Model the fold of this input.
Amino acid sequence: MATATAPATRARRRTRSPEAELADLRSQVMELGNDLGVLVSRAKTDGTALAEAELAQLQSRIVELGGDLKERGREAIDRIEETVQEHPAVSLLAAFAAGAMITLLIRK
Done:
């Protein structure tokens, strides 16, 4: 007979009042809320750090490209100057033709 009452006693121990279960659920929800808050805070911090690192990389790349563009512009100007010095008559004729075409386009 002792074996018959043992399962009944275990069943009573397992059953809890709805208030106790609700209190446990509330505490678990509060824990989850706190964990979520910490997670969101970390994501903001880490996301900001990652965004700043990406921005720094982009800025350095822009500076590098600006330097390259400046250098290529100087090289192009040097080549144009050399061409004008080597062929002044052709250069003058080309400049006159370009100016005439621009004037015609503006008038239309």
Remarks:
- The longest helix spans residues 18-86.
- Helices lie at 2-14, 18-86, 88-107.
- Residues 2-107 form one domain.
